[in-house]
Amino acid sequence: MTNQGECPKCGKRVLHVNIENIVGMIGGEANGRCLSYCCIHCNAVLGVQVDPRSKRRTRRKATTPKEQ
Ligand SMILES: [Zn+2]
Protein backbone atom coordinates (compact mmCIF):
# COMPACT_ATOMS: atom_id res chain seq x y z
CA MET A 1 0.00 0.00 0.00
CA THR A 2 1.37 3.37 -0.96
CA ASN A 3 0.17 6.51 0.69
CA GLN A 4 -0.48 9.19 -1.88
CA GLY A 5 -2.04 11.88 0.23
CA GLU A 6 -0.02 15.00 0.59
CA CYS A 7 -0.39 18.08 2.71
CA PRO A 8 -1.90 20.97 0.71
CA LYS A 9 0.33 23.44 2.49
CA CYS A 10 3.81 21.95 2.60
CA GLY A 11 3.35 19.25 -0.01
CA LYS A 12 4.80 16.47 2.08
CA ARG A 13 3.11 13.12 2.14
CA VAL A 14 0.76 12.63 5.04
CA LEU A 15 1.95 9.52 6.80
CA HIS A 16 1.21 10.80 10.27
CA VAL A 17 -1.15 13.35 11.67
CA ASN A 18 -1.18 15.19 14.92
CA ILE A 19 -4.57 14.70 16.53
CA GLU A 20 -5.63 17.48 18.81
CA ASN A 21 -8.64 17.90 21.01
CA ILE A 22 -10.57 21.00 20.17
CA VAL A 23 -13.94 22.35 21.18
CA GLY A 24 -16.79 22.66 18.76
CA MET A 25 -18.67 25.92 18.98
CA ILE A 26 -22.24 26.52 17.95
CA GLY A 27 -23.50 30.05 18.05
CA GLY A 28 -20.61 31.11 20.26
CA GLU A 29 -21.13 28.40 22.85
CA ALA A 30 -19.03 25.33 23.46
CA ASN A 31 -20.92 22.38 22.14
CA GLY A 32 -18.86 19.26 22.53
CA ARG A 33 -15.46 17.88 21.81
CA CYS A 34 -13.99 17.69 18.38
CA LEU A 35 -10.75 16.42 16.92
CA SER A 36 -8.47 18.18 14.51
CA TYR A 37 -5.94 16.48 12.32
CA CYS A 38 -2.80 18.46 11.67
CA CYS A 39 0.17 17.91 9.41
CA ILE A 40 3.11 16.94 11.56
CA HIS A 41 5.45 18.95 9.35
CA CYS A 42 3.76 22.32 9.15
CA ASN A 43 0.75 21.98 11.49
CA ALA A 44 -1.74 22.81 8.78
CA VAL A 45 -5.16 21.53 9.75
CA LEU A 46 -6.09 18.75 7.38
CA GLY A 47 -9.46 17.94 8.83
CA VAL A 48 -11.78 18.32 11.77
CA GLN A 49 -14.47 16.04 13.05
CA VAL A 50 -16.64 15.56 16.08
CA ASP A 51 -14.93 13.33 18.59
CA PRO A 52 -16.80 10.01 18.31
CA ARG A 53 -15.72 9.03 21.81
CA SER A 54 -17.18 12.07 23.45
CA LYS A 55 -20.39 12.03 25.36
CA ARG A 56 -22.35 15.19 25.45
CA ARG A 57 -22.28 16.70 28.87
CA THR A 58 -25.48 18.19 30.02
CA ARG A 59 -25.00 21.21 32.15
CA ARG A 60 -28.48 21.26 33.56
CA LYS A 61 -27.74 19.41 36.74
CA ALA A 62 -30.29 21.41 38.68
CA THR A 63 -33.20 20.23 36.60
CA THR A 64 -32.45 16.51 36.49
CA PRO A 65 -34.92 14.84 38.84
CA LYS A 66 -33.07 11.52 39.23
CA GLU A 67 -29.96 12.97 40.82
CA GLN A 68 -30.94 12.88 44.44
ZN1 LIG B 1 2.19 20.13 5.93
Write the layout of secondary structure elements.
Elements (H helix, E strand, L loop, with lengths): L16 E10 L2 E11 L5 E6 L18
Antiparallel strand pairs: 1-2, 2-3
Bound molecules: zinc ion (ZN).
Zinc ion binds next to loops.
Characterize the structure shown.
- This protein has 68 residues and is an all-beta fold.
- The protein has one domain.
- The protein is 0% helix and 40% strand.
- The chain is built from no helices and 3 strands.
- It has a 3-stranded antiparallel β-sheet with strand order 1-2-3, with no helix packed on it.
- A hairpin with a 5-residue loop joins β2 and β3.
- The protein starts with 16 loop residues before the first strand and ends in an 18-residue tail after the last strand.
- The mean pLDDT is 87.
- The site of zinc ion has 8 residues, from loops.
Instruction: State the helicity in percent bands.
Output: under 10%
Distance between the termini: 56 Å
User: Please, how many domains?
Assistant: 1
Strand content: 35-45%
Placed side by side, the strands forming the largest sheet appear as: 1-2-3
Stretches where pLDDT is under 50 for at least 5 consecutive residues are none
Bound molecules: zinc ion
For the CA atoms, what is the radius of gyration?
Answer: 18 Å
Overall average residue pLDDT? 87
* Structural class designation: mainly beta
In total, the number of strands is 3
Number of helices: 0
Principal-axes geometry comes out as elongated
| Biggest sheet descriptor | 3 strands, antiparallel
Order of helices and strands: EEE
